[in-house]
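Revision sheet: structure tokens.
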Amino acid sequence: MHAGEGKILVTGGAGYIGSHVVKLLGEAKENILIIDNLSTGRKEAVLYGELLVGDLADDQFLESVFSQNKIRAIIHFAGKIVVPESVEKPLYYYSNNTVNSLRLLQKCQKYKVNSFIFSSTAATYGDNDKGLLSEESVQVPANPYGMSKLMTERMLADFAISNKEFCYIGLRYFNVAGADPEGKIGQCFPGATHLIKVTCETALGKRAQVGVFGTDWKTPDGTGIRDYIHVTDLAQAHLDALSFLEEKRESHFLNCGYGRGASVKEVIEVVRKIHGKDFKVITQERRAGDVGKVVAKADKIKKILGWVPKYNDLEFIVKTAYEWEKKFKI
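Predicted:
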């Protein structure tokens, strides 16, 4: 990948995934502009580029960003991601995730920014226990979080139809985990609900216990199955998407996963192995909006973007998360 003319605007670039993408962009000598309201992101996680603290809902702020900078591409992370919270506060999620994406697209239209990479989610597929989810699988979100992202996907597709210059890559994340292998950044989300982070926190005494939400799913051991992808592999997919967009000018939605799943119980056992001691695990009721099995069919991203994951190993993912958690202080 080669740095081009103009800046890469990264929304939510102080957050977990965004900061890992910013790190790779910086190492590639790109000119990076970051927007983050720091509601969950952290200034310390931004290792490269210029950070502008502000909110996408603030039109005056957004207008100043676009009018004062030559932006050649956008990587859009900013949004809310907690499924149970989305069930409790659906309008909050539609406002943050869908309406703010609309505002961003309106600026793209006005300022002719025609390369857009969108942080979507496997939650757009909903509950599907038939096995692997491909990009052609039916999208029936089981919660407002997934629906808020699906609505943005539809806006991107419709805008691209109406504007032949505009191209996008929508990356549907499966379960992102782990930390920068160099240990410079990791997951800092306060009160995180991500299983691997929560389990590592519990092992290290930062939490009293880890909860297993449901043991009666239609899976081999009764616990939920997820396709865990290392955050650095996911970050690399965004750089591959940017190179592809700028060269090929084609729009696609692509799954980001490894094509294999691990159950909640399996993840807990790996953390126990790495930690070397036991910790408290309790069984709890299923959470609102949860689904039993989410695993990616991820052939398309490899074929189209030439994406080659480096860290497809659950133990490595957990180890990087664990090592980060050992040194991370809120």
